[in-house]
Amino acid sequence: MKLLLALALLGAPTSTTAVAEATPIEWHQCALNENDAEGKALDEAGAQCGELKVPLDYSRPNGPKITLALSRIKATGDRIGALVINNGGPGGPSLSAPIERPDVIETLGKRYDLIGLDPRSVGRSTPIDCKLPFAAWPWAGGSTRASYAKSVAIQADVAHRCEQQVGSMLQYVNTRNTARDMDQVRVALGEQKISYLGYSYGSYLGAVYLQLFPGRTDRVVLDGPVNPQTFGPRLLQQAGPVNEDNLRAWATWTAARNSTYGLGATQREVLASIDRVYRHVRTAELEIGGHKIGEGLVPMLLFVSINDDRETPRADAAVLVQTLVKAIDGPVEPRADLGELLDLILSPAMSQTISAQTAIVCGDRAAPRDPAVYWRDIQAHRAREPHYAPITRSISPCAFWPVQPQEAPTRVANSEHALIVAAEHDPRTLYGNAAALRKSISNSRVLTVQNARKHGVFGEYGNACADQKVMSYLFSGKLPVADETC
């Protein structure tokens, strides 16, 4: 593995000593044109937008630059400081983060300048795009060697397209460089310290920032925590069991509403309905709204839909499964939201997002290159994880990635302060990650939301106890004396 020696010392913020102090940001309206819905929404909320030039390669601070796009809504009351918000992903845009989660953002906006920032390679921040024909990752490996071979070919094609379309840019897309970018934003904002709110992958970005730039944060909330020791191409490898458990819980909920959805009157009957779909797509595709749905896509649809235990998301998931079951007997037209989801997944619409996500994950940690490794893993866990092993353990484009990670993964081990917020049955980032992250950040505390089956809590789940405790920390700056629960 090639290392950029000037940056390889884990925990040392060497990049900032070499980079000239950032110039002030020139703020302007956010809408780029009359068709820019995101910009218009930010403008209507009173936001300003701006750009910041940062080094493409922090080992060459005077070399080529890229542009970061950020937004700001100024504090309306007694100002504490600047709060940078990252929505996760990786590859997720965060320019509009200051106007999302209205239940808490309005209150936070009284005390903080709210900062939205599209990470490098994402959204408006010098985006990369591999020109993908559809959202090919994650894609399930299927039930046979033939279906798995198809998945392998899809992932190899993603890597090839990225090499052709993005090329040498790929080596600079990684979390460590994004953390360095974030510190340049801090400097440009004129802040000695910034506060930070990061969801999902944003919790990992926050942990890396704490490691690289100790002493430069005030208050830090890491929601939906990622284990920094395992973040990388196989991040979802251990997520099968909790998703199977969440699937069973959803099936129980759905069975109690059999008169509405007709999927079965018991948990076992509802799961049998799903298994009918799985058996069908082994040999024939489903036709829904003009789209062909096969083995590679069905597990993804379950994965993205059955991941939230609130009433409305569970009902939406029941309608999705109901549609899949109906499609066994012939073509069906989906409800509008499912049709839009399929249009999104099975078109180039998500190409930029998936491109950035893939580049970040592959740029942070190397993956096994032998496709047989993933197939054996699926097979070994298929009996215990029948619905999810084919997707959580399948191969990714990183197995074929043209660029090796330029630095070793960040070893997070520090005594910074942070509040870690974790749902007990989080279907994306395992609850055990909270303990691992707490150990890595020794002065952190964990706030557990018991019995919650949702990824992302603060301002999203509707748990008043958790929202109040996070707010209390952000306003007072005082962490709980011990871990807490809601």
From TrEMBL:
The keyword Signal applies. The keyword DNA-binding does not apply. Residues 396-486 form the Peptidase S33 tripeptidyl aminopeptidase-like C-terminal domain. GO terms for molecular function: hydrolase activity. Residues 1-20 form the signal peptide. Keywords: Hydrolase, Signal. Pfam families: Abhydrolase_4. Belongs to the peptidase S33 family. PANTHER family: 2-SUCCINYL-6-HYDROXY-2,4-CYCLOHEXADIENE-1-CARBOXYLATE SYNTHASE, TRIPEPTIDYL AMINOPEPTIDASE. This is Alpha/beta hydrolase. The lineage of its organism: Bacteria, Bacillati, Actinomycetota, Actinomycetes, Propionibacteriales.
